[in-house]
Amino acid sequence: MLHERLKGKTCLVTAAAQGIGRETALRFAREGARVLAVDIAEDGLRSLAAEHRSIRPMPLDVTDPHEVAELGSTVAFDAVFNCVGYVHHGNILDCDEQAWRRSFTLNVDSMYRICRAVLPAMVERRNGAIVNMASVASSVTGVRDRFAYGATKAAVIGLTKSIAVDFVDKGVRCNAVCPGTIRTPSLEQRIASLPGNHAENWQAFVRRQPIGRLGEASEVAALVAYLASDEAAFTTGAIHVIDGGWTN
């Protein structure tokens, strides 16, 4: 049985239509929060909202500065989970200007905009928690063929630590989660696009996990819910690795 650690809180979850974002929106709601779930995938948002009455779906493009600014000016959030992300496959020679720019637009610029939009209300009330989606493919460790992705997630860690130190005396906490390989629809799509035998490609991902399996989106959601709650009131500026021992 879940504790209602987020009871009475208003929370924002981006990329909420599937995967870790979806599981986190549901976890927040089950923990007692009112959840604004945003994404550009409207069908996914509708099906998510049907699963819990405390989830309010809203289409939002986090790459649109005007949409994000308007959101921040109309709703005050107690907790925010920045989950939007894009994984480019390849090394630096495989990463052209367009792929590089898209990676930063989705993985870093979106968080910059969301954080700028929600921080003023948090500072005014001297209370707030921001959780950013990073990755072990970042400043934590280098991962083959994750050049652009690793660069953006390292930037997310820097962004997180900077916000944490700048607003620690204003009642706002900011932390990052760094997952390893998590079973999500986006991972399934990437594996399906790989050449060779599908089952063997799956097993290749599993074999690199010391714990012997892939992580589940619900496990990451549980960590995010803790960081968003008052139980983590003494935690800020930290990166939280959840990777089944991959980088141990």
Question: What is the structure about, briefly put?
Answer:
The protein has helices spanning 19-30, 42-49, 65-74, 97-125, 147-167, 185-192, 198-207, 217-228; strands at 10-13, 34-39, 55-59, 79-82, 128-133, 172-179, 182-183, 215-216, 239-242. It is an alpha/beta fold. Helix 5 links the parallel strand 5 and strand 6.
Please, could you describe this protein's structure?
With 248 residues, this protein is α/β, with parallel strands linked by helices. The protein has one domain (10-180, 216-242): Rossmann fold, CATH 3.40.50.720. 44% of the residues lie in helices and 17% in strands. It is built from 8 helices and 9 strands. The chain has helices at residues 19-30, 42-49, 65-74, 97-125, 147-167, 185-192, 198-207, 217-228; strands at residues 10-13, 34-39, 55-59, 79-82, 128-133, 172-179, 182-183, 215-216, 239-242. Strands 3-2-1-4-5-6-9 form a 7-stranded parallel beta sheet, with helices on both faces. Strands 7-8 form a two-stranded parallel sheet. Strand 5 (128-133), helix 5 (147-167) and strand 6 form a beta-alpha-beta unit. Helix 4 packs parallel to helix 5 (147-167). The longest helix is centred in the middle third of the chain and has 29 residues, at 97-125. The model has no long low-confidence stretch (mean pLDDT 94).
